[in-house]
Amino acid sequence: MMPILSDKYRSSRTLGVQFPFGHSFGAVDDPEMQRRTLDAALQLLVDAPGPETRVDVDEQWPGDAREAYKNWQPDEPSPIVLHSMEMIRQARAAAKPQS
């Protein structure tokens, strides 16, 4: 989902997918798409000639990706997101010049 990061951190094997965040294996209620993605990932593990191998899945998202991403977002942030938000808030507060 983020090939730039995969390249930057030299992932040993990367399966590239053009899916919205939150849908790494494919669309909800589409087990065939999810199975094809899983099969491609497993095949990559078997066939990869070496480290830093990348294979992109030729699979089209079946609808509006922006809508899928929006619908994936939970109503309330997870504990790790809340923690991250608090750490950012604290860092910004500490960086502000004191009056």
Taken in chain order, the helices and strands follow as HEHEHH
Structural class of the secondary structure composition?
Answer: mainly alpha
**Number of helical runs?**
4
User: Tell me, what's the shape?
Assistant: flat
Strand order of the largest sheet: 1-2
**Low-pLDDT segments:** none
User: Whole-Å distance between the termini?
Assistant: 44 Å
C-alpha Rg (nearest Å): 18 Å
Please provide the count of β strands.
Answer: 2
- What is the averaged pLDDT score? 87
Could you walk me through the main structural features you see in this protein, from its secondary elements to its overall organization?
- By secondary structure, the chain is mainly alpha-helical.
- It has one domain (3-74).
- The chain has helices spanning 3-8, 31-47, 65-72, 79-95; strands at 13-16, 53-56.
- The protein has a two-stranded parallel ribbon.
- The mean pLDDT is 87.
Question: Brief description of this entry?
Answer:
This protein is mainly alpha-helical and 99 residues long. The protein has helices at 3-8, 31-47, 65-72, 79-95, and strands spanning 13-16, 53-56.
Top keywords for this entry?
flat, mainly alpha, 8% strand, 2 strands, 99 residues, two-stranded parallel sheet, 4 helices
